[in-house]
Amino acid sequence: MSEEVTYADLKFQDSSQTENIQKFDKFEKEEPPVPSHVWRQRALALTLLCLLLLIGLGVLGGICMEKLNTLRNFKEELQRNMSLQLMQNTNSSQKIRSLSIKLEEIATKLCRELYIKNKGNKCKPCPEGWMWHDDNCYLLLSGYQRRKTWQKSDEICSDYNASLLTIKSKSVLEFIKSLKLINYWLGLSPRKDTTKYNNLDTIISFNWFTRNTSVISDEMYCGYIYYPSFFYTECTDTKNIICEKLAQSVKIESILMSEVLDRRK
Ligand SMILES: *[C@@H]1O[C@H](CO)[C@@H](O)[C@H](O)[C@H]1NC(C)=O
Ligand SMILES: *[C@@H]1O[C@H](CO)[C@@H](O)[C@H](O)[C@H]1NC(C)=O
Ligand SMILES: *[C@@H]1O[C@H](CO)[C@@H](O)[C@H](O)[C@H]1NC(C)=O
Ligand SMILES: *[C@@H]1O[C@H](CO)[C@@H](O)[C@H](O)[C@H]1NC(C)=O
């Protein structure tokens, strides 16, 4: 049995060896025809394809980069143009602003000339019946019926969006002197003591009333003008009223309008 197996094994080994040799022989004989030029052709084709793809990618990439660069340049130019435009716009609006300020100054000057010639000129930046001096408008309310206590007078001026007369500059002082006002309340701060006589020229340095800072009672003394002086008297006395308020700005249209009206006369 063991002998048989050994033999068989040997036989098998033998045959497999010969088979191997045979196969090897066969392999050596059959190998050359299959790969040689077919495989080489295929490899070449693949290499070419790869090369082409690479070139294509390169070209595409180049085109893309070019496009990107163009876009980036365009964007930068646009940004430059926009910031330039913004600067020009700012410059323009600054120019317009300074021009309109200048125009308003000219209009005010012109209107002042017209006002000097004719106090009723329509360009006047004050309401009807008010006088114009510097930047202020002034209203006189006089006569026996219209005389009021200081407090009432202050309220009346308030109703006009105005306040009682103040004299805080040399220019206003000269203007008020020219009016030669007799018995008009002043917007001086009421005080607890009276004073005898005050020259109008000293009035600029006096305390002027500001709403809600002074408490007014019946025992206080209020200032009034009696050209060429001013005095303090009981605030419950009755006197004429002069109100003041800021003038509006002169409108170009109002000057043109007044010129047209003047020509028609
Ligand atoms: C930028 O401005 C210049 C000159 O004003 C103009 O020629 C150009 O077309 C502008 N560029 C863009 C992107 O708007
Ligand atoms: C704007 O004005 C300034 C001077 O005020 C000037 O230097 C600048 O060149 C102006 N810019 C433009 C875009 O006009
Ligand atoms: C006072 O000012 C108010 C608000 O500004 C306004 O409604 C009113 O008409 C003005 N009165 C006078 C007399 O100007
Ligand atoms: C100022 O006084 C008036 C009445 O005299 C009052 O109604 C107002 O509340 C006061 N304002 C302030 C800020 O004190």
UniProtKB/TrEMBL annotation:
Protein topology in the membrane: Single-pass type II membrane protein
C-type lectin domain residues: 133-244
Transmembrane segments: 43-65
Major location category of this protein: membrane
Domain of life: Eukaryota
Localization, UniProt: Cell membrane
A single MF term (Gene Ontology): transmembrane signaling receptor activity
Cellular-component GO terms for this entry: plasma membrane
InterPro entries membership: C-type_lectin-like, C-type_lectin-like/link_sf, CLEC12A/B, CTDL_fold, NKR-like_CTLD
Keyword terms of this UniProt record: Cell membrane, Disulfide bond, Glycoprotein, Lectin, Membrane, Phosphoprotein, Receptor, Signal-anchor, Transmembrane, Transmembrane helix
GO biological process: negative regulation of dendritic cell differentiation; negative regulation of immune response; negative regulation of natural killer cell activation; negative regulation of neutrophil activation
Cross-referenced Gene3D superfamilies: Mannose-Binding Protein A, subunit A
Pfam families per record: Lectin_C
Protein name: C-type lectin domain family 12 member A
Organism: Capra hircus (Goat)
